[in-house]
Structures are given as C-alpha cells and as structure tokens.
Design goal:
Elements: H1 2-107
C-alpha cells in the first residue's frame, strides 16, 4: 500500500513536472513569436521610414532642379532685356547722331 502510494505520488509529481515543462515551452514559444513579430514590425517601420526618407530626398532634389531651372530662365530673361535695352540705347544714340548731323547740315 505504501509502495503504491509512493508510486502514485511519483507519477503525480512527474505529471506535474511534465505539465510545468509544457507550460514553460508554450510560454517560450509565445515569447519567441512575440519577439519575431516585434522584429518584423520594427523592420517594416524602418522600411517605411527609409521609403519616406527617399521620397523626401527625391522631392528636395526635384525642388532644387525646378528652382535652378527658374533661376536660369530668369537670368536668360534678364540678359534678353539687357540686350534689348542696349540695342534701344544704341538706336537712340544713332537717331541723335543723325539728328545732330541733320541739324549741322541745315545750319551750314
């Protein structure tokens, strides 16, 4: 009877230990799954951040290119207007010279 009671206690203890080991293994697996899910989430967030960084960089470069283009167009326009002004000044100087020559001719 004592031997049977001790055997039952031993079997109950083994069952308890096996149950605790199974629970510990389940917890270990759950923690591993949580860790992997967290790593995947972080990797996804990092990829999204990198995509956003690249988008912003492309936007910045496009804006810089647009501004450089506008500046070049403005400089071309400034040069064109300066050439027009100089041509107009030359035309007026020529007209004045012709008028002076005509005045001198009439005075003579």
């Amino acid at each position: 009877e004592e031997r049977q009671r001790l055997e039952e206690e031993r079997l109950a203890e083994e069952a308890k230990i096996a149950e605790e080991e199974a629970a510990a293994e389940e917890e270990r697996q759950r923690l591993e799954e949580d860790r992997l899910a967290e790593e995947a989430k972080i990797a996804e967030e990092e990829a999204a951040a990198e995509t956003e960084r690249q988008r912003l960089e492309e936007e910045r470069l496009a804006e810089e290119a647009r501004l450089a283009e506008e500046e070049a167009a403005a400089e071309e326009e400034r040069q064109r207007l300066e050439e027009e002004r100089l041509a107009e000044e030359a035309r007026l100087a020529e007209e004045e010279a012709l008028a002076d020559a005509e005045r001198q001719r009439l005075e003579e």
